Amino acid sequence: MATPTATVPSAGPLVGSRSFLAKLREGDEIARLITFLFAASVVLLTVLLVYELWIGSSLPRHKFGFNFFRTSVWDPIFDQFGALPFIYGTVVTAAVALILAVPLGIGAAIFLAELAPARLSDTLEFFIDLLAAVPSVIYGLLGVFVVVPLMRSYIQPALKSTLGFLPLFQGPAYGVGFLTAGMVLAIMVIPYIISVSREVLLSVPRDQREAALSLGATRWESTWKVVVPFARGGIFGSIFLALARALGETIAVAMVIGNQPIIKASLFSSGYSIAAVIANELTEATSNLHYQSLIELGLVLFLLTFILNGLARILIVATSQKGSAVGNA
Amino acid sequence: MKRISAGLAVALGFAGLLWADSPLSINGAGATFPNPIYSKWFDEYHKKFSTIQINYQSQGSGAGIKQVTEGTVDFGASDGPMNEEQLKAYQDKHGSGILHFPTVLGAVVPTYNIPSVSAELNFTPEALAGIFLGKITKWNDPAIADVNKGVTLPAEDIVVVHRADGSGTTYCWTDYLSKVSEEWKTKVGKGTSVNWPVGLGGKGNEGVTGTLKNTPDSIGYVELIYAESNKIPYGNVKNAAGVFVKASLASVTAAAAGAAKEMPDDFRVSITNAPGKAVYPISTFTWLLIPEKFTDSAKRDAIKGFLKWALADGQSYAEALSYAKLPKEVVAKEVKAINKIQ
């Protein structure tokens, strides 16, 4: 596979002069066509997906219009459907998950890539990959039987007594809710962040570290000021992956979020996420409007992921300029 | 060579036999609640008539109604009867109607976790509606305490737990609450998923019981079968005759017998809050949804044959699986209705 692409740069000046047939014979053109088709199929799938969701949600789109995003009543009996509590729940749980998982995950990745002995690093990596492969329903069960009782009896009372002045940590604590869902999601996405970030950190060229060290930087300075900024793009990539997983996670969230379409500032409150309500209600949705509203929620989740990813990318561009400035200095 | 050709002949003959005997495959989809007994029935029926193979996918009542309307399955199954709008949709699409056949009965029971109380609690319809509407918020509210003399109920907040996933269990529960409370009927209504005024949502029967176990002073509802097979204690409910009745196979069948006298010809009847002293009031039929007209006569005859068997011999499998049997009056009426299938 790698041979033709490897020969092309060396044959640089000749590329333009070769005939199409010759290129075809050498396999370049075929490889290009095939890989192009593969890449195009991703775009095609995305377009098809949006098209299907769009067509499948025509009833609620016409009936509710933009109000679908603004109202918070979800009543299958009286045919009132508003997506706001689900959007709120999805964003809040994903945010809680990332706030918990990002520092932990990146910290662990830095330790594994830069500071830990190679043998320990590889052993731990094996366990982390194992964690990433655990089905989400298992994490959901873990949430129901371990995290929820722990939250209700210990963590939530402790938060209430120390940080209870914040609206985030007020109200009755049942164990289920935004905070618990966010915690379970954090446990689920940490392996992704660690695994990808560690690979990226390991692939930072050795001379970068050596150059920093030779200029008198300490080990930590070379890691934090040279290696991490160098790997910034890849680390952000791992956070995207984590975000995508957190936004789309269904079953584990449905098991611990409390499944109540309400909007409350308190993280102790139960809530609902888009993916969870689709999983819960789609099979038993008897009216067309209910069914199609759930499909429209699918479209909303798609848009939400799109928007959040876009925002995150803008954030990267903005900060990576700052980052390279730090690197240059 | 001779041996090979002989072997070939045997193989061909065997294949021919298989071909001639290839079973008639009938597909159905719908409610999850009757899935255990339907699986048993289809299995037993296949043992009896090896030429008929009935496949059933338990995807939920909503999916059952949808699929049979779209014609992707031969029959559907539902825990709640189809409404007028759905019947019309079927009629418009197929040019003929669809029939409801009650098969067995189930019930929904109130279950609770109050650490300081071990006694079996009594619930009035008013108390249940009040709790689930969020109007009765303390366990020692007179609406609960007055019918539980001798039990010291705590002055704790009631935590309501309900099903989050759409389900026939919720349909039965909310159908009952709609009948006993005018406020419930106008504010919330009945359905497989409703807009709950209060409470945490658990996924599935196991989600509800899991949340109950984790949450002191909580109340929820589960299927009788689930409560029985998992040894979950549940309360008594006051029926229309004013008697507190505990759910059991007998009290559930009694509910159907009470309703049998006024059974409409299309069997689309709710038996929640049925009259009669021995009746458990939160009971329900579960239905098979059979098209009135079949284009394939072999399928039609097979389904008619199966229905006759399920209503007679099939009923004997019900109680072992904790389903209540159909009362005789209902069976007699259904057997007549089978002739409507053409």
Explain the overall architecture:
- The complex is a heterodimer of chains A (329) and B (342).
- Chain A is mainly alpha-helical.
- Chain A folds into 2 domains: 25-56; 58-328, MetI-like fold, CATH 1.10.3720.10.
- Helix content of chain A is 76%, strand content 1%.
- Chain A has 15 helices and 2 strands.
- In chain A, strands 1-2 form a two-stranded antiparallel sheet.
- Chain A is globular.
- With 342 residues, chain B is α/β, with parallel strands linked by helices.
- Chain B has 2 domains: 25-105 and 284-340, D-Maltodextrin-Binding Protein, domain 2 (3-Layer(aba) Sandwich), CATH 3.40.190.10; 107-258, D-Maltodextrin-Binding Protein, domain 2 (3-Layer(aba) Sandwich), CATH 3.40.190.
- Chain B is built from 13 helices and 11 strands.
- In chain B, the strands form 2 sheets. Chain B has an 8-stranded mixed beta sheet. In chain B, strands 5-9-10 form a 3-stranded mixed beta sheet.
- In chain B, helix 2 links the parallel strand 1 and strand 2 (52-58).
- In chain B, helix 3 (61-70) packs parallel to helix 4 (84-94).
- The radius of gyration of chain B is 23 Å and the shape is elongated.
- Mean pLDDT of chain B is 89; it is low at 16-20.
- The chains are: A mainly alpha (329), B alpha/beta (342).
- The A-B interface holds A 73-78, 80, 144-145, 148-149, 152, 172, 174-176, 254-255, 258-261, 270, 272, 276, 279-287, 290-291 and B 59-63, 65-66, 80, 83, 85-86, 157, 159, 164-168, 188-196, 199-203, 207, 210-211, 214-215.
Q: Roughly what fraction of the amino acids of chain B lie in strands?
A: 15-25%
Helices and strands of chain A, in order, run as: HHHHHEEHHHHHHHHHH
How many separate domains make up the residues of chain B?
2
Largest sheet entry of chain A: 2 strands, antiparallel
Spatial shape of chain A: globular
Rg measurement of chain B, Å: 23 Å
Along the chain, the helix and strand elements of chain B come as: HEHEHEHEEHHEHHEHEHEEHEHH
Any idea of the CATH class of the largest domain in chain A? Mainly Alpha
**CATH-derived topology of the largest domain in chain A:** MetI-like fold
Q: Strands across the major sheet of chain A, in which order?
A: 1-2
Largest interface: A-B, 36 and 37 residues
Q: How helical, in percent, are the residues of chain B?
A: 40-55%
| Assembly status | heterodimer
